Automatic annotation (TrEMBL), chain A:
The gene is mcsB. It comes from Aciduricibacillus chroicocephali. It is an enzyme of class 2 (transferase). InterPro entries: Arg_Kinase, ATP-guanido_PTrfase, ATP-guanido_PTrfase_cat, Gln_synth/guanido_kin_cat_dom. Keywords: Allosteric enzyme, ATP-binding, Kinase, Nucleotide-binding, Transferase. Catalyzes the specific phosphorylation of arginine residues in a large number of proteins. Is part of the bacterial stress response system. Protein arginine phosphorylation has a physiologically important role and is involved in the regulation of many critical cellular processes, such as protein homeostasis, motility, competence, and stringent and stress responses, by regulating gene expression and protein activity. PANTHER family: ARGININE KINASE 1-RELATED, ARGININE OR CREATINE KINASE. GO terms for molecular function: protein arginine kinase activity. This is Protein-arginine kinase.
From TrEMBL, chain B:
Keywords: Coiled coil. Gene3D superfamilies: UVR domain. It comes from the Bacteria. This is UvrB/UvrC motif-containing protein. SUPFAM superfamilies: C-terminal UvrC-binding domain of UvrB (SSF46600). Residues 149-176 form a coiled coil. Residues 134-169 form the UVR domain. Signal peptide: none annotated. InterPro entries: UVR_dom, UVR_dom_sf, YacH. It comes from Aciduricibacillus chroicocephali. PROSITE patterns: UVR.
Length: 354, 180
């Protein structure tokens, strides 16, 4: 497989578009949980019932187009290899929960991968929609349109008091999780992030790292999302989240400026050292890769590194994960072999920029 | 410390397990912990079971032995789930469970959603036809009140007619069995 083709697979087409504030906010996402009113929820439904759901979705929505999105492709999880499934998770197109019932779970996916609809995850339907950069409101509007489109055919489990009836009480009500993925190296370097996270949590929002729990997020990437789904409208939830994200963007910009002014040489050194590691290392573990990619991305955003585009870093963050590496190697790799391949891939990718 | 399963990511979760009286420490990354079933697949990264157990002041989720209730518990007629089971797994089995356990749910939602027990958001267009009308009527009634206070009777009469038309529509919906 050529590297070019491989890269094409790693980056969803929508990620190539630049969104508002995309130096800090990488993507905006809305997820809606929905259920069929007359089918038992996936956690306890039997195979026959689950098949009723997948068959219905496959028949009614596969190859149908919806507004700006291309035709939806219907993919049954049972037809995918372990590595393919892992790649879908690494691209955040499906969740690991979807694989619990591999035999009876499926997804609908739009051609540009902006929309993915998981079928028989924890709920019968989990639709999610991504837009690049910071545009939660627009993401919500489009998710609503899509939801209305599905609802023409599906009799949703809904109650006036409890809203959309979800399997998990934490999703009842709107069934909505709104989230943004933020790159916050300035707040991490200036150690402000440890102060900010508890404050944000107190506001009913959740902050977590992209690749793990806790404040030490890999690659300084944080996901901020709403915790509460009942008692507030979707628009209010999104607007509350937006105002916090707006503040975080301001803090991050200030921190970056402060770093440049107060310790510009140290910052430059940090950035170029990381760039050097990415260009020359022969063994690169995922933690170091994430750290260096974050520093180089910061260097690009601050105009310190000019010859590479910010987009390739999003791309590298995805294709240096285990699923993608193994897909590239066309087989299962031990951790040490993955580190060697990761280094090779990153080197080669950076060479393509020059 | 690296994760003892994948040896790749950092171990962010540390458990102490007692197996046959021997204490064993387990160090895992979030992903491997999920794969082993220590964490539920929850997006928020913590185990909802544990949370709900905390809320109900029950035993921790790891304790598998459930005291057998003397009294036959109320089971959901559609999926067969009892409230005890709901508390144990932290998930409803089907939409009907909400109605089966309705008298016990306010405290659950109040705790999970910071005191909120009522949905305030989107109404499905088709199914919620009558709900939409109800909302519209509420909006128009307050508009009507406002217009009357302003002594704008001409417009008020129009709004009143609009409300009447909607109320007729609402009755039709109800007769069509649209509302639960």
């Amino acid at each position: 497989m050529s590297l070019n083709h491989f890269i094409d697979e790693a980056l969803s087409p929508w990620m190539r578009e630049e969104g508002p504030d995309s130096d800090i906010v990488m993507s905006s996402r809305i997820r809606l949980a929905r259920n069929f009113s007359d089918v038992v929820f996936p956690i306890i439904a039997d195979e026959r019932e689950l098949r009723r759901v997948t068959d219905f979705i496959g028949n009614e929505f596969a190859d149908k187009s919806f507004k700006e999105y291309e035709n939806f492709e219907y993919v049954q999880m049972a037809n995918l290899s372990t590595i393919e499934k892992r790649m879908l998770i690494e691209k955040h197109l499906i969740s690991p929960v979807l694989l619990k019932r591999t035999g009876t779970s499926a997804m609908l996916i739009s051609e540009n991968e902006q929309v993915s609809i998981m079928v028989n995850e924890e709920d019968h339907i989990r639709l999610q929609l991504y837009l690049p950069g910071f545009q939660l409101e627009e993401t919500l509007n489009r998710a609503f349109e899509l939801d209305d489109w599905l609802e023409q055919k599906i009799d949703y489990a809904y109650d006036e008091k409890w809203g959309y009836l979800s399997s998990c009480p934490t999703n009842a009500g709107t069934g909505m999780r709104a989230s943004v993925m933020m790159h916050l190296p300035g707040l991490v370097i200036t150690r402000q992030v440890n102060r900010l996270i508890p404050a944000i949590n107190q506001l009913g929002l959740v902050v977590r790292g992209l690749y793990g729990e806790g404040s030490e997020a890999r690659g300084n990437i944080f996901q901020i999302s709403n915790q509460i789904t009942m008692g507030k409208s979707e628009a209010d939830i999104v607007s509350d989240l937006e105002s916090i994200v707006r503040q975080l963007i301001d803090h991050e910009r200030k921190a970056r400026k402060h770093l440049q002014e107060q310790s510009g040489m140290r910052l430059e050194d940090r950035i170029f050292r990381s760039y050097g590691v990415l260009q020359h290392s022969r063994i690169l573990d995922s933690k170091e890769a994430a750290k260096c990619l974050s520093n180089v991305r910061l260097g690009i955003d601050l105009g310190i590194i000019k010859e590479i585009s910010g987009q390739i870093l999003n791309e590298l963050m995805i294709l240096t994960q285990p699923g993608f590496l193994q897909h590239y190697a066309d087989g299962v790799l031990a951790a040490e072999d993955r580190d060697v391949l990761r280094a090779t891939l990153v080197r080669e990718r950076l060479l393509m920029e020059n | 410390m690296e994760c003892q399963d994948c040896h790749e990511r950092d171990a962010t979760l540390h458990f102490a397990q007692s197996v046959n009286g021997q204490k064993k420490e387990v160090h895992l990354c979030e992903q491997c912990a999920k794969e082993r079933g220590y964490l539920s697949g929850q997006e928020d990264g913590y185990s909802l079971q544990d949370l709900l157990f905390g809320l109900f002041n029950m035993e921790p989720a790891s304790q598998k032995t459930e005291p057998v209730s003397q009294k036959e518990p109320t089971r959901c007629p559609k999926c067969g789930m009892s409230f005890t089971e709901f508390k144990r797994i932290g998930k409803f089995g089907c939409a009907e469970c909400y109605y089966t356990f309705s008298d016990k749910l306010d405290p659950v939602f109040r705790r999970v959603h910071s005191g909120n027990i009522r949905h305030q958001g989107k109404i499905p267009k088709r199914k919620g036809g009558s709900l939409h009308i109800k909302k519209q009527i509420l909006g128009l009634r307050s508009e009507l009140q406002h217009l009357i206070e302003q002594e704008n009777f001409e417009e008020a009469a129009e709004v009143r007619d609009e409300i009447r038309a909607l109320e007729r529509k609402q009755t039709e919906h109800r007769e069509a069995g649209d509302e639960r």
